[in-house]
Amino acid sequence: MTWFAQLFCRVSALMLMWCLPSLALEGYRAELNIPFSTVDGKTLTMNAFLPEQAERPAPAMVYFYGGWWFGGGAAGKIEDVPGWDNFTKRGAAVFSNQYRLGREGGFPQNIRDCRNAIRYIRQHAKEFNIDPERIACTGISAGGYLTYMVTLAPEDFDDGGATKGLEGVSARVCGGFGYVGPTDFVDAWERSPDDTVSADGEKKHRPPDNNIYNDYRPRLRILFHGMTPETEAGRMLYARMSPVNLARKGTPPLLIGDGEKDLIVPFQPGRVLHEKLRAADADAVYWMTPGGGHGYPGGRGFQEVLNDFLNRIWQPAQSK
User: Fold this and answer.
1) Residue span of the structural domain in which 47 resides
2) pLDDT tens column, 275-317
3) CATH of the domain at 34
């Protein structure tokens, strides 16, 4: 490539970056790559999409992306957040944060990162012009799981806690809307096919295979840093990191979605979580998309359920 072609490409890229704000949703401004936590030498960032003319502090929705906890990234524009229009029509601020992935992430590291994102947003509520008591979260798949955990985890949950500068700030949310996420890692392990292979008489474990149905085991070995529920300590860890075991009275409201024919996260694990929450007299709403796969909830009546949920969790304090 000639120097002129290289220069042209660099100038074109810069022009595209300068033009991005003009593509933002009308009435919203984007603040990108905001550092919110430094952990193990890695600085994590978030993107914020903020209503420009809010007359009072706005509610907030924090989006956790999916990708098997191995891939994905924070939403680069507000339209990348599933259901974004339901949030913006209520004048809500929308955030999306990074969390550590794969071997450097796993459990509880990714939970800690998402809870620290909530802490940072609350700590900076005045700068963002949001209501610190009306911060909710949402997510799909791996992000659905993280939504369940962030919503249900007690303040002293053993994920490593607040990183420097966020000490003493609450990670509590006013509600969560998660969908097509796993809820019980012990059950997921037991339902998953064996990943053990023999090579030259030595027992080994194969890598994840997207062509194998419900192939949790090789992924969970990595995400749990080599631990499995086949030992007592491993089973206890898997159980502690499972939303079904955090069901108790007094947790923030949770809207849970499954897809009836989801082949990525099968067996409607959200239904089991909902049943445990209702048995504990917790505030939980369940929706299964008829014929639905691994995606955003839908079907007749869902929009009304979502509207009711958002209106309820985002009521100003004086109206509750």
Assistant:
1) 30-181+242-319
2) 999 999 999 999 999 999 999 999 999 999 999 999 999 997 6
3) 3.40.50.1820
